[in-house]
TrEMBL record:
This is Coiled-coil domain-containing protein 181. Microtubule-binding protein that localizes to the microtubular manchette of elongating spermatids. It comes from Heterocephalus glaber. GO terms for molecular function: microtubule binding. Residues 35-78 form a coiled coil. The gene is Ccdc181.
Amino acid sequence: MNENKDTDSKESGEYEDDFEKDLEWLINEKEIDPSKIEKELRKQLEKKREKLKREVRIQEEQRKIEEEKQKKKENDMVFKAWLQKKREKVLEMRRLQRAKQIEDMNSRQEDRDPQKAFRLWLKKKHEEQMKERKSEEVRKQEECLFFLKGTEGREKAFKQWLRRKRIEKIAEQQAVEERARQLRLEARRSKHLQNYLYNMSEARSFRFADHYN
């Protein structure tokens, strides 16, 4: 804004210098009445000043419009980023809810069909045993490589051993989680059985009391 004022003052000064030179020349030549020419020049100077002010005002308005556009653009970008994050959060919550619903549904199906649950348990147990056997075979192969080969073979065997240990750790974690799940299922079945026996006992007591009466 200060630059615009400086420009305005500078250009106005240049106009005044030019007008004063023209005025001085005309007066010296005595071709026009000095009072008339001075009045006309002052009038033209005032017009040019007004024109310059209008141009400065237009430039200022354009600058404000550009600033508003930029601000609106930034606000739109922030809102879109927030909206995208909100959508992702909602989708993640829906995915977790769906996974929980599927897990609950599977648990209810296993509760209704104990034989199916037992078959699934046998299948998982067999898979765990196969993994253990495979891990044991890999371990024996690594030991052979370690003793039969030199430094390169030992390094390779050591890397394989680290990889096997990581796999075993993951398998152990999965086994613990599976065991915890089985315990939850067994506890649920036990509770259902207790409720069933309790209901049967209540029904028998009711029939006995009714018959006695």
